[in-house]
């Protein structure tokens, strides 16, 4: 197929890094962006086939640079993980996770859409999560942002279809990128030492999220396939079959 210019946020690790490498191997021009210059330098050294760029999605100056890069496909992958009891999590952490996971995604989209409209085609792939479908105790800060991504993607898909621009999302489950481990490890600092009930709930969440995590290659390949597809579905739930499990959990909670 014709090579495309693809910008990926949060490409320093995890799904973003994997997708950048995979898409470059398929012959595309990949702009692999990272939160820090140190990450960009490391990525450039490890993968010289990529064009690397420091682009912090919470920095308006960084985001503005994306408007002039000729982006045909934007993969909004940059993400921050915060899990904690909502009664004790510092508000600065709640605001910070919304800045990255929601407002940064919106800002990046607004930066590249005018160019897509001008050329009459484009694609935006938002990385959501199964956490956008469900919520449970201690997961609310992260789940709230991913629920917002769900609504944003659905609305944006309808709006931009009018301009020939395709919008879709990927909802990964528990994949072994290290992201889940860091997020779950941070819960304990927000639970009081004597709050045994919440510590017990934390142990349950830890087991559910971290047990039998999956190979991230599944998500990497799905992102690459969506970037190349003629048409996309609104939603790609991973792993295969998790949609039925999610629906059963939703039904059980009603």
Features:
254 residues, alpha/beta, 7 strands
Give a short summary of the structure.
With 254 residues, the protein is of the alpha/beta class. The chain has helices at 14-25, 37-46, 60-65, 91-119, 140-161, 179-185, 196-210, 217-228, 242-253; strands at residues 5-8, 29-34, 51-54, 73-76, 122-127, 165-172, 235-238.
SSE map:
Layout: E1 5-8, H1 14-25, E2 29-34, H2 37-46, E3 51-54, H3 60-65, E4 73-76, H4 91-119, E5 122-127, H5 140-161, E6 165-172, H6 179-185, H7 196-210, H8 217-228, E7 235-238, H9 242-253
Parallel strand pairs: 1-2, 1-4, 2-3, 4-5, 5-6, 6-7
Helix pairs in contact: 1-8, 4-5, 6-7
Explain how this protein is built.
- The longest helix has 29 residues, at 91-119.
- A seven-stranded parallel beta sheet has the order 3-2-1-4-5-6-7, sandwiched between helices.
- The chain starts with a strand and ends with a helix.
- The chain is an alpha/beta fold.
- It has helices at 14-25, 37-46, 60-65, 91-119, 140-161, 179-185, 196-210, 217-228, 242-253, and strands spanning 5-8, 29-34, 51-54, 73-76, 122-127, 165-172, 235-238.
- Strand 1, helix 1 and strand 2 (29-34) form a beta-alpha-beta unit.
- The chain has nine helices and seven strands; from the N terminus they run βαβαβαβαβαβαααβα.
- 49% of the residues lie in helices and 14% in strands.
């Amino acid at each position: 197929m014709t090579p495309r210019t693809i910008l990926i946020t949060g490409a320093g690790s995890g799904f973003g890094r994997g997708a950048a490498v995979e898409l470059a191997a398929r012959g595309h021009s990949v702009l692999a962006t990272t939160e820090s210059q140190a990450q960009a330098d490391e990525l450039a050294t490890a993968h010289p086939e990529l064009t690397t760029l420091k682009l912090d999605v919470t920095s308006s100056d960084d985001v503005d640079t994306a408007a002039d890069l000729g982006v045909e496909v934007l993969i909004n992958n940059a993400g921050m993980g915060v899990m904690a009891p909502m009664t004790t999590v510092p508000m600065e952490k709640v605001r910070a996770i919304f800045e990255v996971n929601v407002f940064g995604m919106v800002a990046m989209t607004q930066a590249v859409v005018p160019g897509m409209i001008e050329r009459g085609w484009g694609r935006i792939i938002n990385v959501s999560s199964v956490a956008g479908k469900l919520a449970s105790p201690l997961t609310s800060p992260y789940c709230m942002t991913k629920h917002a991504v769900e609504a944003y993607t659905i609305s944006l898909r309808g709006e931009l279809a009018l301009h020939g621009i395709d919008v879709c999302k990927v909802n990964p489950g528990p994949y072994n990128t290290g992201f889940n481990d860091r997020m779950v490890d941070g819960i304990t600092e927000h639970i009081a030492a004597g709050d045994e009930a919440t510590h017990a709930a934390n142990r349950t969440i830890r087991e559910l999220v971290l047990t039998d995590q999956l190979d991230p290659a599944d998500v990497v390949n799905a992102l690459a396939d969506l970037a190349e597809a003629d048409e996309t579905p609104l939603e790609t739930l991973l792993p295969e079959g998790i949609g039925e499990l999610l629906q059963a959990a939703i039904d059980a909670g009603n």
